[in-house]
Amino acid sequence: QVQLVESGGGLVQAGGSLRLSCAASGRTGSSYSMGWFRQAPGKEREFVAAITSSGSGKYYAESAKGRFTISRDNAKNTVYLQMNNLKPEDTAVYYCAAGSRATTSERVYGYWGQGTQVTVSS
Fold it and tell me: Which positions ≥6 away from 3 have C-beta within 8 Å?
């Protein structure tokens, strides 16, 4: 079992920045690929970014490219999502997930955190 706890969400003005953290505990959290997903009100959950277990591979949704950066510190069992130049359309609950592969498909991820709210005001 892997437990995931997100933090770092909040209210920010458009153009601002936030850094989300996802702390993993339990069974060898650092051996998993990690992903960030988000779900806005009334919409389906969507892929944001993913990173391989070593950190060498990183993948982004088109909406995140150039603005968001995913990284991880395996010594701390923590994954980060640095979000810059935030837009109102980035408002959503952000979830981190652990899985066997870094992929855009949420079905691959077997472990999920509880989510953290990000609200971007215009």
Answer: 24, 25, 26, 111
Task: State both tokens at 105.
Answer: 């498909």
What is the residue-averaged pLDDT of the chain? 95
Cβ burial of 53 (10 Å; 0-12, 13-18, 19+) is buried
Q: DSSP string spanning 18-78? A: EEEEEEEEES-GGGSEEEEEEE-TTS--EEEEEE-TTS--EEE-TTTTTTEEEEEETTTTE
| Coil, strand or helix at 94 | strand
Task: Provide mean pLDDT across the span 76-104.
Answer: 97
Q: What is the mean pLDDT of residues 68-87?
A: 97
Report pLDDT digits (tens) over 87-97: 999 999 999 99
